[in-house]
Amino acid sequence: xxxxxxxxxxxxxxxxxxxxxxxxxxxxxxxxxxxxxxxxxxxxxxxxxxxxxxxxxxxxxxxxxxxxxxxxxxxxxxxxxxxxxxxxxxxxxxx
Length: 95
Hints:
A hairpin with a 6-residue loop joins strand 3 (27-32) and strand 4 (39-46). The chain has strands at residues 2-3, 9-15, 27-32, 39-46, 67-73, 87-89. The protein starts with a strand and ends in a 6-residue tail after the last strand. The chain is built from no helices and six strands. It has a six-stranded antiparallel sheet, with no helix packed on it. 0% of the residues lie in helices and 35% in strands.
């Protein structure tokens, strides 16, 4: 989801399978619904704790279902985007 109040950024959820490599400063591609172009983003922050722990994530086999909230700064050109537009970060190469 895009939040464009001041500095535009995308709030995304990162699966635990890529959490170790998804760190502040990492450059990622961000796909925003309704835009044909891909935006270049920079990871600003990643939560240290999972956002939610489903009951089925308590075993080692199911641990990959944990998700971490993260924020990705977007370029100034994204200032015109409305707040709340769905966005997705490309995780190719991190798995």
